[in-house]
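DNA-directed RNA polymerase III subunit, Plakobranchus ocellatus. Tokens?
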Amino acid sequence: MAGRGRGRGRGLSINIEALGLGRGEVVPSIAQPPPLFPPLRFRPLPLTRSSELDYMVALRQELRYSLHKSPYYVNAPNKAKDIERYSDKYMLGANDGAQRWEPDWNMFPSELQERKKKKAKSSSVKPNLKAARKMKVQDVSKLLEQAEPEEAEEGIKKEKNQDEDDEEDEEEYDEEDLEEETDYNLAYFDNGEGYGDEDEDDDEGPTY
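Tokens:
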């Protein structure tokens, strides 16, 4: 129990003999840096040039260029710079000049096909300007001449109606004045001649 907790390096001892060194020997120091490239074990075959290989290389480059310009090619989003420059607005993107993809809609089901919305026709009635231009000055003067007597007749009718209304108002006013005057004279006038007659005839007491 007394030896516990002492000597932390006992479990991590290194066997020097396994490394090819004896006890007391010093590890040799490396005086030179390692080579930049390790030696090749398998060397590539020499490149043979021919017209067939040149055609295949050109075809590969053309295919790669067409894929980059096609609408199917997805570019990685550009990272925002720390400072926004005015010239960035006019810089063309990598896919701005690409061809627009126009699919053959006959190869797609009806559910996936595009549908063009029809514009609703406006119900407002537009004036016929051509017919209005053809109207002559004589036609306008005739219409004005026909409208003048009609307006005069309407004015006369309005004046007659106003006179009749005024007469009816005056008659109603006179009748009300007469009714008030006769009603006051008949009902509310008392000359006091019959005052005290009932008290002399009846001794039972005053009547209410």
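The chain has a mean pLDDT of 70.
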